[in-house]
TrEMBL record:
Coiled coil: none annotated. The chain crosses the membrane at residues 373-391, 403-425, 480-511, 582-602. This is ABC transporter domain-containing protein. It is a multi-pass membrane protein. One of its GO terms (molecular function) is ATP hydrolysis activity. One of its GO terms (cellular component) is membrane. The keyword Transmembrane helix applies. It is found in: Membrane. PROSITE patterns: ABC_TRANSPORTER_2 (PS50893).
Length: 614
């Protein structure tokens, strides 16, 4: 790679004026006059992070702009600061104890902090945040329902329009899927993620590496779609890793970042000439994007080689020499911004939409639905085979205690793992939509619980008769119905415990590891192995204890005993130390369920604040 003198003064000498290499904004597109065009301009952005008392400057005073009608690509080596810049421009990073952000970002000349910026700006993250058990059409319809007021017909038309525009019509009724359940392809998922955001017709679309993980053909189609969005007058900004030559040719504008500094900003088409005149000529038949990345390559950012620092210094000086040649701030009419308001959807409608969405996603998820009910059926049959007709004499007490102990653990663990396995995925969607101000934490939480109830009721109704009658438990209608209620409450407590764990876990993997860690100590306080006085208060926080107590109290109270009058007293409740009535036992279960849900809600609310303030 050539490192000959690349003095910025050579630019002028070589006949490079700003109009040559710096993009002039040309309004080539016909904009829809009903929607405002937004120019985003950022000035002297600095971003500093402090880790273990060591500060690192990620962005070192970056300025730039993105214009309506343009596709702006931000490129640079891994770690150059692309995502950081994108997040700051989208208003997603603010200063906090470990990060310091300075500089301004303006939309049509107005500081974005003074605007309800989220209403104008769609942000598509690198990982697709979609509920896996919805179809593409459902994902778009629910998104439209939450974001846009309008009749069902209007929503349907809007969704059909987006499906068509994003070429998703053919797979509209396919399930999205996730790592475990195969659904649509990566490119289709990415287009669905974009569609979910586009539905509210945002004027700015910001995407973090939308082509990552896609083959070159799919990436090409995706970029074409984004170019089409830009042609509608939207401002499109994306970080792109390794674009193909054909994709590179489609960029309207290019920003090259290295080490937190802008190395180039301007027309992508004219970048070749710019670099060439600085002495860095892209070889024939070589993809310019690839060449620029190689040019900016550094092996160790803390110890640059002589050649690396020379290239960076040259590019930096060349860019700085023309730093005043920024895009003109366009007068796009700030009034338009003030007038433009995304329509608000009523709270009742949002509650109905969220409940329906959560219900569908839950019912189709084999974890909490088919697998849970199948597990109940198989385990119940197994228990029946092992312990059928338990009896009502003294000899039976030991076995009945064991069966109740097992049932309490089984029902709670089914609920617990069920929640912990679904919550980490759902909460990502919640954080995103909560951050966008689509609904409140309480609305989400209540609708989630309502949506999950039917499956929990069905599971209790399926499992209870399969267990109660073959096991020969005390046969009265009242006791049977109470048993059904206890099985339901046990699962419900389990779900509550799962919410506490799941709300804190960012992935199912972590949740799976955390569930046994939390539940195992609580099982020790269930009440059967009551041989320790240590930390006895823990029993009040053990759902296993309350479930076991309720099952035993229901079975043993007023039981028709067949005990040997000369043998030991048939008083298992006394032996177990359970003095509460059945009403009180049920109340403990309800109190635990409500308490656990309240704790999980507080966790969600506190964690959500981080996203809300963005
Ligand atoms: N909040 C943070 N805490 C610690 N380090 C951070 C933080 N944000 C960014 N960084 C660091 O700043 C550098 C730039 O990160 P950024 O994600 O912006 O890079 P990037 O150019 O998007 O990289 P990539 O292409 O690999 O995604 C990285 O070294 C990253 O580790």
């Amino acid at each position: 790679m050539s490192t000959e003198l690349k003095n910025p003064s050579l630019l002028a000498k070589n006949g490079l004026d700003d109009s040559t290499y710096y993009e002039e904004i040309t309004q080539t597109q016909i904009f829809d006059s009903a929607t405002p065009e937004i120019q985003l301009a950022w000035e002297d952005i600095r971003y500093q992070v402090t880790i273990k008392k060591k500060s690192q400057e990620i962005l070192k005073g970056v300025s730039g702009s993105a214009n309506p009608g343009e596709f702006l690509a931000i490129m640079g080596l891994s770690g150059a600061g692309k995502t950081s810049l994108l997040n700051i421009v989208a208003g997603r990073i603010k200063s906090c104890s470990s990060t310091k952000v300075s500089g301004t970002v303006k939309a049509n000349g107005i500081d974005i902090n003074q605007l309800n910026f989220q209403k104008y700006c769609a942000y598509v993250t690198q990982e697709d945040i979609l509920l896996p058990f919805l179809t593409v059409r459902e994902a778009l319809t629910f998104s439209a329902g939450l974001r846009c007021a309008g009749s069902s017909k209007e929503i349907k038309d809007k969704v059909d329009g987006i499906l068509h525009e994003l070429r998703l019509t053919g797979i509209a009724d396919n399930m999205i899927g996730d790592a475990m359940f195969k659904g649509i392809s990566g490119g289709e998922k990415k287009r669905t993620s974009i569609g979910v955001e586009l539905i509210s017709e945002p004027q700015i679309i910001i995407l973090d590496e939308p082509t990552s993980g896609l083959d070159s053909f799919t990436a090409d189609i995706l970029v074409d779609l984004l170019i089409q969005q830009a042609k509608k007058g939207r401002t499109v900004i994306a970080t792109i890793h390794q674009p193909s030559t054909s994709i590179f040719k489609k960029f309207n504008k290019l920003i090259l970042l290295s080490e937190g500094l802008t190395m180039y900003q301007g027309s992508a088409a004219k970048s070749r000439k710019y670099f060439s005149q600085l002495g860095y000529k892209t070889p024939r038949l070589v993809n310019p994007a690839e060449y620029y990345i190689k040019l900016l390559h550094i092996t160790n950012r803390y110890e640059l080689t002589k050649e690396e620092s020379e290239i960076l210094e040259n590019l930096k000086m060349a860019y700085e020499g023309h730093a005043d040649k920024k895009d003109k701030i366009r007068d796009l009419g700030t009034a338009q911004l003030n007038l433009y308001m995304a329509s608000d959807v009523g709270s009742i409608k949002k509650i109905l939409i969220l409940t329906k969405r959560s219900f569908i996603n839950n019912v189709r998820n084999p974890g909490p639905s088919q697998i849970t009910i199948g597990f109940y059926i198989v385990t119940s049959i197994l228990l029946d085979l092992l312990f059928h007709d338990l009896g009502n004499d003294y000899e039976a007490i030991h076995t009945i205690n064991g069966v109740m102990y097992f049932l309490a653990i089984m029902c709670i663990q089914i609920g617990n793992t069920g929640s912990a396995m679904t919550f980490p995925v759902e909460r990502t969607t919640f954080f995103k939509e909560y951050g966008q101000g689509l609904y409140g934490a309480l609305t989400y939480y209540i609708t989630k619980m309502i949506a999950e109830l039917p499956l929990q009721v069905v599971a209790a109704l399926v499992a209870s008769p399969l267990l109660y009658f073959p096991l020969g438990l005390d046969l009265t209608a009242e006791k049977f119905l109470t048993f059904v209620f206890i099985i339901f409450l046990s699962q419900w407590m389990g779900h509550g415990l799962g919410y506490i764990v799941g709300a804190l876990c960012s992935s199912i993997l972590i949740a799976n590891a955390a569930v046994p860690m939390v539940s195992s100590p609580l099982i020790a306080y269930e009440g059967l192995m009551d041989n320790t006085e240590a930390f006895k208060w823990v029993q009040y926080f053990s759902p296993f204890r309350w479930s076991f107590q309720a099952l035993c109290v229901n079975q043993y109270t007023d039981m028709d005993w067949d005990c040997d009058p000369r043998g030991p007293k048939c008083d298992p409740l006394n032996d177990l130390g359970f003095s509460d009535s059945i009403g009180m036992s049920l109340l403990w279960c309800i109190l635990f369920s409500v308490g656990a849900r309240s704790i999980a809600f507080i966790e969600l609310k506190v964690l959500g604040l981080k996203f809300k303030n963005l």
